[in-house]
């Protein structure tokens, strides 16, 4: 079938590189346009990235000869994936929106906008209903990388048993800070107990994602969330220790059953959707980023150490790949759902 032309805004950064990697041979989308800073306009992608490519061993061949273009809506595509830094994403994404483009954004700027779905396809696909009808262009965002892994694991439990409280501590990988990221003297032999804006994102975005649509608006979920966020010396993979309280405490085996059986998009056969969405590890020392972050090609969430909590009801460990499931892969999955639902004009 004929593939839809797409572009990447911010193609040279850590998330932009993941987009390049994950869009290779994609059955729905053909990458035709890439954008980065003005100093690189007109240069080949391989020329600009020869000393900056960090995602995999080599730049995919299909992207090596692509020419970096000016960041304007006059690209040879209507659909753009945004991996822009939040400092510039606000204005640029709005400009593309006004031109009639469809923006699938990884940036934080529009996540809490009233008419913008904050989407995890397996959790809240019905939120696509808030996209303004008959609009030529629109924005869909994916959540913060830590929010994504947390809510993917907790959504089936909330839908079945109703969660009242969440207490979460994150240990977030270096790649989440972008490139070049955290200076080595700051992170070697160290843990940094602060990441600007991360705790607020988890505490607000989670409530929007788990909310319900009422009168074409999202009513946020009534859950109390407390988050602590830390940067640790791990390349990829955000690990979270989580305690949760339910309206009525379910049996432990029911918790595991709901997690293992949760994969509501399985019948849609989306290219980026993993066969097993939530993987449960029974070992006492798992999950670990080094060994478990690539589950489902980085699109699965791994959960372990599910046990009684002496303060709330249950506690567990949740691991997700931050630049794949929590960033570029999540945004591409959003686009795949939009494609299947007919939002992309296909």
If you had to describe this structure to a student in words, what would you say it looks like?
- This protein is of the alpha/beta class.
- It has 2 domains: 4-144 and 327-340, NAD(P)-binding Rossmann-like Domain (Rossmann fold, 3-Layer(aba) Sandwich), CATH 3.40.50; 145-321, Dihydrodipicolinate Reductase, domain 2 (2-Layer Sandwich).
- Helices cover 27% and strands 23% of the residues.
- It has 10 helices and 14 strands.
- The strands form 3 sheets. It has a 6-stranded parallel β-sheet, with helices on both faces. It has a 6-stranded mixed β-sheet with strand order 10-7-11-14-13-12, covered by helices on one side.
- β13 and β14 (314-320) form a beta hairpin.
- α1 (14-22) crosses α10 (324-340) and α5 runs parallel beside α7 (198-209).
- The relative contact order is 0.15.
- The mean pLDDT is 96.
Short summary of the structure?
27% of the residues lie in helices and 23% in strands. It has 346 residues and is an alpha/beta fold.
Helix and strand topology:
Elements: E1 4-9, H1 14-22, E2 29-35, H2 45-49, H3 61-64, E3 68-69, E4 79-82, H4 86-98, E5 102-105, E6 138-141, H5 145-161, E7 163-172, H6 184-187, H7 198-209, E8 212-214, E9 217-219, E10 224-231, E11 238-246, H8 252-261, E12 278-281, H9 289-292, E13 301-308, E14 314-320, H10 324-340
Parallel strand pairs: 1-2, 1-4, 2-3, 4-5, 5-6, 7-10, 12-13
Antiparallel strand pairs: 7-11, 8-9, 11-14, 13-14
Helix pairs in contact: 1-10, 5-7, 5-10
């Amino acid at each position: 079938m004929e593939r839809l032309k797409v572009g990447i805004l911010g193609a040279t950064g850590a998330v932009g590189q993941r987009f390049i990697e994950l869009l290779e041979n994609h059955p729905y989308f053909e990458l035709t346009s890439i954008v980065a800073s003005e100093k690189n306009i007109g240069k080949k992608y391989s020329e600009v990235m020869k000393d900056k490519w960090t995602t995999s061993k080599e730049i995919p061949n299909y992207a090596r000869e692509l020419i970096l273009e000016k960041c304007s809506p006059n690209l040879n595509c209507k659909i753009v994936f945004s991996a822009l830094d939040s400092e510039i994403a606000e204005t640029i994404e709005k400009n593309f929106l006004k031109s009639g483009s469809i923006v699938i954004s990884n940036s934080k700027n529009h996540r809490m906008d009233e008419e913008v779905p904050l989407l995890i396809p397996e959790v809240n696909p019905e939120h696509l209903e808030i996209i303004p009808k008959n609009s030529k262009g629109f924005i869909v965002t994916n959540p913060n990388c830590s929010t994504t892994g947390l809510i993917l694991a907790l959504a089936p439990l909330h839908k079945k048993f109703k969660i009242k409280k969440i207490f979460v501590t994150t240990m977030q990988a270096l790649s989440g800070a972008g490139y070049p990221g955290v200076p080595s003297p700051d992170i070697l032999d160290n843990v940094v107990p602060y990441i600007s804006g991360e705790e607020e994102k988890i505490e607000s975005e989670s409530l929007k994602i788990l909310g319900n649509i009422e009168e074409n608006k999202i009513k946020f979920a009534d859950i109390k969330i407390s988050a602590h966020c830390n940067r640790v010396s791990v390349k990829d993979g955000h690990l979270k220790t989580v305690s949760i309280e339910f309206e009525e405490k379910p049996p432990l085996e029911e918790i595991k059953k709901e997690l293992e059986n949760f994969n509501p998009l399985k019948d849609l056969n989306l290219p980026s959707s993993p066969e097993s969405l939530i993987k449960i590890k029974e070992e006492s020392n798992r999950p670990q980023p080094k060994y478990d972050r690539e589950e489902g090609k980085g699109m699965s969430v791994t959960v372990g150490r599910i046990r009684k909590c002496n303060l709330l009801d249950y506690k567990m460990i949740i691991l997700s790949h931050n630049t794949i499931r929590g960033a570029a892969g999540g945004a591409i999955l959003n686009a795949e759902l939009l494609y299947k639902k007919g939002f992309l004009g296909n």
